Amino acid sequence: MSRLILSNLTKRYGALTVVDGVDLALEEGEFVSLLGPSGCGKTTTLRMIAGFVPPDGGSIALDGAIISAPDSVLPPERRGMSMIFQSYAIWPNMTVEENVAFGLKLRKLPNAEVRARTAEMLETVQMAHLAGRYPAELSGGQQQRVALARAIVIKPAVLLLDEPLSNLDANLREEMRFEIRRLHNAFRITTVYVTHDQAEAMATSDRIAVMHAGRVEQIDAPHLLYARPRTRFVAGFIGRTNLIEGNVANDIFAADGFSLPASSMAGQALPPGPTLVSVRPQSIGLHRGVPDAPSGHPVMQGTILERTYLGESWDYVVSPAESGLRLRVAAPPLDVHDVGGAVWLALDPRQLAVVQ
Amino acid sequence: MALWIALALALAFLVAFPLIKLMIASVETRDGAFTLNNYATAYGRARYLEALFNSLKLGALSAAIATLIAVPMAWAVSRTDMPGKGFCWAMVMAAFVLPPYLGAIGWILLAGPNSGFLNVLWRAVTGAEDPIVNIYTFSGLATVIALHSFPLVFLFVKSALDLISSEMEDAANILGAGTFATMRRVTLPLAGPAILGGFIIVFLETIALFGTPAIIGIPARINVVTTQLWQFFEHPVRMEVAAAYAMPLLLITVAMIGAQKLLLARKGFVSQTGKGGERREIKLGAWRWVMFAWCAGVGLFAVMLPVMVLVQASFAKAWGRGLSVDNFTFRNYYHLLFEHDMALTSVWNTIWFSAAAATIALIIALLVAYMVVRKLSRFADALGFLAMAPFVIPGIIMAIGFYAAYASPPFAMYGTAALIILAFAARFLPIAFANASAAMRAVHPEMEEAVRILGGGRMTAIRFVTAPLVKRALLGGWLIVFIVATRELSAAVFLVGPRTRTMSVLLYDLSEAGNFEVLAAFGGILLVITMVFVAVGMKLAGRDFMLRRS
Amino acid sequence: MLISRRTIAALAAALPFAARAQDLPAHERTLHEAARREGELTWYSGQYSAEHSETVGRAFTARFPGVRCNVVRSTSQVAFQRLSQDMRAGAAQCDVFSSTDFGHYSLLKRENRLLQYRPENDAGLFPDLRRADPDGYYHTSFMGLYLMAHNTRRVPEADAPKKWTDALDPKYRNQIAVGHPGFSGAIGIWAVQMRKMYGWDYFTRLERNRPMIGRSSLDPVTALNAGERGIGLAVPSSSTSLSISRGNPLKLIYPEEGVLATISPSAIPRNAPHPNAAKLFMEFTTSRYLSDAIRPMFGDPIHPDTAPAEGMRAVSEIRLISPTQAEAESGVPEVRELWRDTFGV
């Protein structure tokens, strides 16, 4: 049975529907991210899970029991969850140790146990040597570790994280990303993680729910989300992509400048009619001469229109000959082409994703 | 350069010299020889020590009661969905502007053990023999003081609570703490420094308070430091002994402020603003009415009941006879307005002394704040420190310092209006400074730099950009100083001359004459005047100008 | 504007008294001329109650137009404290000093703080009140009678004390109100007199009855009016009678041992800023016009031409007690300290 189930969850503020019929099920021990641009409803969804915001429709069930419905909301303090806030909300009037022990004390555990578990937890997040410090004396990353320790030490039924890394600088963010995943691997706490940063979501999550305008667009494992986006929004939001319009007829997908067997893309037959295809810049081969492509892999000649060096790769804009398309193509740093230079493009149908 | 020297001189005159003079006087004989006899005299009697001890006890008790009253109010107003917040504000504001000695007289009428209205009512309803409240007790005195000083705690705590992001509370909620557990274990401790600060302020105000202990403390047979200081001014005037006797008060004050700093040094309460500082009102459900009842109760006891009995007494022939048509008269007001030699003069004195003091304080404060905020001189911070120093000097000590420094020749300012105005200006300089520097900080220096890059001088920038931007805030600051000056008693009582008596001093004199009806009528006049100025302030400087904390 | 309105009011109120210059005796006329040039005087008044003092001040200005009287009314000890503070600061602010603690005057005279001036009108006072100081540094301006009173609702006639010592009866616990010798001059004199008659034991026993302590000798009257207390000790007959006339359920008690009389003078400080106005005021206080002014408010006349107020016993019918001036001068500071030790305030 799933641990946490959101069914048709809806929240309106006046005329504005900020969460619009969200369905989501988390398995025991699963780490799911809610990913989306600001205003997509992900934080509101999280706060509904926490119990701070009552839903206007639908329900939330924890271990089979309804904990949120429009008429009855179990207050946050009785959900057995814990949460990490954007501001960390580390209480500045308590030491690191007192912060971490707070939830345990509320559970009226014996003092010895509180002390032991707190110490163990601080050890785990590598904060044991700072147990007596006050939060004002800690760096941002250290505060973050305290927040993690405080949330995890109570062994919550569900751990909620609200953009926990958004206030850290880039290096620290990367470090903490792995720290969060490491802790998850260690404790296997069912986790909902809200972020607008796809790299963060990719690095930490078992599955990602991409949200847009209050709806979940797609839920999938991170690599599938990247390779098999199912909607135009997801394709555009996750990584960079080329969206190519075409038409399917007689199992042939025909676009401006190339065509290929439709079933070779999706692994199945596609219904005829206009079809949109997403292809990642990394998935397009860029060659100086005519590439030696397997049959069914379309090959096109083209001209470099623009180029930008991004550090890890080149970003070329290529216009295929006899076509109105403009394709973004990524190439390694030493594959240098001048603007106006002639190149060859090779497409692998398996890397093309049909989107709605 | 010339400006800062002028400011330094002004501050030395207003703050440093009186204090230094006081310290010197405490170790000098009248002829100027060094002696420690003053201290021996000041602490040579058990009664004097007991007064000191009483003051400390009274300060602690009043501060504790005030904190107990104010903290739930501040929490309810700042963080919950309690109804009637506007009413609550009004009550806090009214309690703040009501002069403490007037409240004390109101409470004598309310809670005199035999004749107080509350006790008469209590006996009538229950048939009990004993009074329900007795104002002439230590706890009665402390409660009356607390009922008029709790707004200080309220202001401190509310503004601290306003800064706490709701996530701090959410974090406790999600870990399993309910609304009240969260308030108790997270929200209030977060406001801890403010609560402590408010407690200390009330403590210091209480031990420096003169009027209420004189009016209630004597019948209750409680001697405190201030009434004892007053005794040292009996013939022969032993100002040196008073100076020596005042020293511990000063030390206690400095020590408490120091202790507070030390206590809070490590904990970083700055971060309580947090990021993502969203604030939501806590839904209290039925409890919101309980909180409202608490606030309304405080308003009832701090403001409504005392004012009601004062108004009744002011229109009564004999207040003990209660409400009846044949007991009603305008005679008390008529007497004050048309017959009394000093009443109107004192009204006029009060208004113009307070106005002059507010103006002087604000001008000095503004200039110092400008120098401090814009870092114009490396001495600016020292000036800022001097401007804030009177904050920790009890008013009555300030007055004795002024008496010691300026009463005798060569200054010979005793009894002059100038001396009182300067004493008021010095006493309330910190309020003016806090207001002025908050206003200054709100004006980004780039606003002025933009003028200067276009070719305007600093003065042009101040005149056309800075001044208009801070005008409203300064007006608010001026009015606060003005209003607190109109009710100031302890600084005035040692410095007034026969023609320079203020309303507060005249009220004190009237309270000696045992005629509560005339006294109440004069209090009524004082209240009307204060209300007019508060109303003007709200109109010109915004509804919350008195309570904005800077 | 404020001043003129008050002046008009004062004039209107006192019109019947108004005297034209030619009606004044020659010595007053001369002084009046000189005083007019000074324009005003400041009177530190601890003798008469606030209401009486204001009335006296207005009556003075009405009789001597052009000379304002600034009334600074307080308890006698506070008035003396102000005067001491003035002297300490070297400030000259007070023109006439009036205190019920007549010990103040021998002290001030010895310290050479007073101006020598004997008002001509002094000769017209009751014979016993004339020439208060043989050297003419101070002159009688006030006679106060201090006795007991009870609130007839709280303490019925039959239960009321008859003698000063009756107040020590434990049955009056929590019933008594009294002023404070640290503030009121008359209470200081009274305490000296009680100590003289019964020793300080009188007060240690009084303390056991938990009296309510006010500041002024008038405070007990207020407490009686309100019903806060049942018995007032050493209350002034004038203010108590005024209170009775206003309908308060009070009754005077003439103690069997005698009524305390404080026959107290006024004096002009040597450095008075308005000496002529001060002298004129001294003439006024020793004339019948002062006694006339206070009579309607039950003040005790000190001039034989003024009859006692309606219903008041004539002084000649009462047994009076009082300490000597020497006893007062040394005794009041002593009893003040003793009082504070005994009562704590």
UniProtKB/TrEMBL annotation, chain A:
SUPFAM superfamilies: MOP-like, P-loop containing nucleoside triphosphate hydrolases. GO terms for cellular component: ATP-binding cassette (ABC) transporter complex. PROSITE patterns: ABC_TRANSPORTER_1, ABC_TRANSPORTER_2. The keyword ATP-binding applies. Residues 4-238 form the ABC transporter domain. InterPro entries: AAA+_ATPase, ABC_SmlMolc_Importer, ABC_transporter-like_ATP-bd, ABC_transporter-like_CS, Mo/tungstate-bd_C_term_dom, P-loop_NTPase, Transp-assoc_OB_typ2. One of its GO terms (molecular function) is ATP hydrolysis activity. Pfam families: ABC_tran, TOBE_2. Keywords: ATP-binding, Nucleotide-binding, Transport. Gene3D superfamilies: 2.40.50.100, P-loop containing nucleotide triphosphate hydrolases. Belongs to the ABC transporter superfamily. This is ABC transporter ATP-binding protein. It comes from Plastoroseomonas arctica. The lineage of its organism: Bacteria, Pseudomonadati, Pseudomonadota, Alphaproteobacteria, Acetobacterales.
TrEMBL record, chain B:
The keyword Cell inner membrane applies. It comes from the Bacteria. Its main location: membrane. Pfam families: BPD_transp_1 (PF00528). The chain crosses the membrane at residues 58-77, 89-112, 132-157, 194-222, 242-265, 286-311, 351-373, 385-405, 411-434, 473-498, 518-541. Keywords: Cell inner membrane, Cell membrane, Membrane, Transmembrane, Transmembrane helix, Transport. GO terms for biological process: transmembrane transport. CDD domains: TM_PBP2. It is found in: Cell inner membrane; Cell membrane. GO terms for cellular component: plasma membrane. It is a multi-pass membrane protein. PROSITE patterns: ABC_TM1. Residues 52-258, 347-537 form the ABC transmembrane type-1 domain. Belongs to the binding-protein-dependent transport system permease family. This is Iron ABC transporter permease. It comes from Plastoroseomonas arctica. The lineage of its organism: Bacteria, Pseudomonadati, Pseudomonadota, Alphaproteobacteria, Acetobacterales.
